[in-house]
Amino acid sequence: MKSIKYLYIILLISCLWLSKATAQNDYNSVLVSDTIAINFQNHYPISAVNVIPGSEMIYLKSKKLNSYDYSFTYAQSFFTLSDSLPYSIFDTLIVTYRSLKLSLQKEYKRRSLVVKYDEKFGDTVSVLTSTGGFSPEAIFGSDMQKSGTIVRGFTVGTTKDFSLNSGLRLQLSGRISEDIEIVAALTDENTPIQPEGNTESLEELDKVFIQVKHPNVVGTFGDYQVKQRYGEFGVIDRKLQGLMGEFSFEDVNGYVSVANSRGKFNTNSFNGSDGVQGPYRLSGLNNERDIIIIAGTEKVFLDGIEIKRGENNDYTIEYSNATITFTPNRLITSASRINVDFEYSDRQFARSFFGTGTSTKFFNNKLQIKAQYMREGDDQDSPIDISLSEDDKNILSLAGDSRNKAVKTGVKLAEPDSLGIVRGIYTKVDTTFNSIDFSYYVYNPGDSLSLYNVSFSYVGEGKGDYTRQSLGYYSFVGIGNGSYLPVLFLPLPQLKQMGNIVVDVNPIENVTLSLEYAGSLWDKNRLSALDDGDNYGYARN
User: Fold this and answer.
1) pLDDT recorded at residue 305
2) Exposed, middle or buried, 20 (CB in 10 Å: 0-12/13-18/19+)?
3) Which long-range contacts link 242-246 to residues 24+ away (Cβ below 8 Å)?
4) Following DSSP, what letter does each residue of 352-419 receive, concatenated?
């Protein structure tokens, strides 16, 4: 009888212990549900780390899977499906399981070794190094080549406080997939200094871009050079900043470019002087003198032959001063015909560019059709280093296409100083010329009669009344005997558009018949509707 009593006591204690253990197990675990899409790798990681074995339930198409339909690896918290299980890539799995309430990670490591078994030979393994999530390999991939520089420096001067400078330049190249390659040059530096034009090749320190390459498509973001030729009229070679895409398939290829134009294109043609190798000053479209040549954009022709840049070659160029000097390898005379194509920056208006072109072949390359459209223009509502008043805009609206009408006086009465005294640098002299009242200005800073500050503009040799002596110092030399006038030219915002189509026919081998037709629009002043009758032009070849 005693043995039966003891047996009941043991059974009661066991039941109480099991009940407590079960309740404690439920209290220390949580029910988790994950929704996972079917993938080709047949590898399905779950969100929790500490899975209670046997607590999982997996549903496919609202049907619970049996234990033989999948294989669950609890240590790494993932499962795989059986190959015999019917499913498609569009299906979704729902997984429910219980997980312990423990703040644990799968692994605690700085670096770990990953062992990968060979698919063909089970006894052969390769050991890989796995690093943290913020390593270069994790960010860029193991196939990416990286290089760069970090610069630290300081600046100090008599009129400038001490300051620290730093800069980072990073170059990337490599494949991010089997068909996609990336090339990039990135920097956080601001490099306003132009390279010196005394070598044949230039190092473009300010060129920043990301280029993605595919066998059929190439995309470039940032600084790039667009070089396209669609017939005789549709030729372009420009340095731009923006986005460009190029595509090439079996019978179709083309490009699209959307960018901010870094400068304006211009050509200077002039004859040399006997015994003068330079420097020869280059000017803008409207004879502007204070321009900056965009480095590497120039093409120099001497007597119709393109020549090379460099101290050991044919010429050197000062991009910041817009001057060109020829080396002794090219002796310049008055008979030398010099032509310089270049891009320059005048920082007047924001300037945009759009270009697109395509070429298509038909009938086994017997017929080829090419078409292109380009648009480049100033944004008249976005001036950069200038400010246009309502009076200035009114002058421009009445000027039409004439730059000589878009002028205002360069004479201003000096502002009084803190003592109320007007201190200018030019004195006004009134006189008569051919019985007509005439005034001119004499440089005389510090004189009590010097009440004016005067700005001068270059108008061409023999077309002005003043000559330039030094910075800010101009002297009156008589009417029509100089090259400067006390006026300010207002900038004319312009718009250029051009489109052309080319048809090439190959009737027989080595014989090509070509027909080209082009149309263009050039609005020389977008702020004026006057003189717009001559904006359009056409050509054929």
Assistant:
1) 92
2) exposed
3) 242/353, 243/219, 244/219, 244/220, 245/217, 245/218, 245/219, 245/220, 246/217, 246/218, 246/219
4) EEEEEEEEEEETTTTEEEEEEEEEEEEEEEEESS----HHHHHHHHHHTT-GGGSEEE-EEEPPB-TT
Closest by Cα among 132, 317, 115, 295 to 223: 295
HEC assignment per residue over 50-70: CECCCCCEEEECCEECCHHHE
- Hey, what are 506's tokens? 């190959």
Give the model's pLDDT for residue 39: 83
Helix (H, G, I), strand (E, B) or coil at 19: helix
Neighbours of 458 (CB within 10 A): 20
**176 neighbors 182 (Cβ within 8 angstroms):** yes
| Residue 26 burial class via C-beta count within 10 angstroms: exposed 0-12, middle 13-18, buried 19 and up | exposed
Q: What's the average pLDDT block by block, 10 residues per block, for the chain (541 residues)?
A: 47 44 54 86 84 88 88 88 82 86 58 52 50 51 69 66 68 80 74 56 66 91 88 86 91 92 86 89 82 86 91 89 90 92 85 93 90 91 83 90 88 85 90 86 90 90 91 91 92 91 90 92 89 88 84
User: Does residue 363 contact residue 505 with C-beta atoms inside 8 Å?
Assistant: no
Return d(Cα 86, Cα 59) in angstroms, integer: 13
According to the model, what pLDDT value does residue 195 have?
59
DSSP notation for 188-224: -----PPPPBSSSS---TT--EEEEE-SSEEEEEEEE
Element (H, E) at 18: helix 2-27
The SS3 of residue 137 is helix
For residue 527, the tally of other CB atoms under 10 A from its CB is: 22
Helix, strand, coil percentages, rounded to 5, for the chain? 10, 50, 40
Paired residues of 411 in beta bridges: 454
* Element containing residue 477 per DSSP (H, E): none
Question: In this structure, which long-range contacts are made by residues 185-190, counting pairs with CB atoms below 8 Å and at least 24 apart in sequence?
Answer: 185/209, 185/222, 186/210, 189/151
Cβ burial of 385 (10 Å; 0-12, 13-18, 19+) is exposed
Among 510, 500, 505, which residue's Cα sits nearest to residue 541?
A: 500
Q: Give a three-class secondary structure readout of 142-184.
A: CCEEEEEEEEEEEEEECCEEEEEEEEEEEEEEEECCCCCEEEE
pTM: 0.62
The pair of structure tokens assigned to 298 is 């120039």
Task: Please tell me the distance from the alpha carbon of residue 389 to that of residue 177, in angstroms, as a whole number.
Answer: 55
514 within 8 A of 502, measured Cβ to Cβ: yes
Q: Which residues contact 386 (CB under 8 A, 6 or more apart)?
A: 348, 491
The type of residue at 305 is I
Residue 65 to residue 276: CA distance in whole angstroms: 92
Q: Where are the domains of the chain?
A: 24-100, 264-345, 410-482
